[in-house]
Amino acid sequence: MPPDQEMQKILERNTQALEENVQLLKSIHRAMLLGRVLSILKLLIFVVPLILAYIYLQPYYKDTMKLYKEFFSSAPANNGLKMLLPELQEIMGGQKK
Questions:
Q1: Mean pLDDT by 10 residues, the chain (97 residues)
Q2: How many whole angstroms separate alpha carbon 48 and alpha carbon 37?
Q3: pTM listed for this prediction
């Protein structure tokens, strides 16, 4: 076999191997890009509702904490829970007795 034919076969194999490598690299790049997009979406799916819940529920939380502080600070001074029961019923929407 002459050296030119041998070189031609080697070049053809190299070209074929390079084309396969390019295809593999493109698929790997596509998979990495898709993985990044999905990880950002997962982060947004979990973080955005938490932030919105914090913003939306914060006034309710403050009101509830204020109620608990009033309840626990005034219970011993008001002779126990007997005095607080009408106040709690009024706050909850019930009627005073």
A1: 89 97 98 97 94 88 81 61 64 61
A2: 16
A3: 0.50
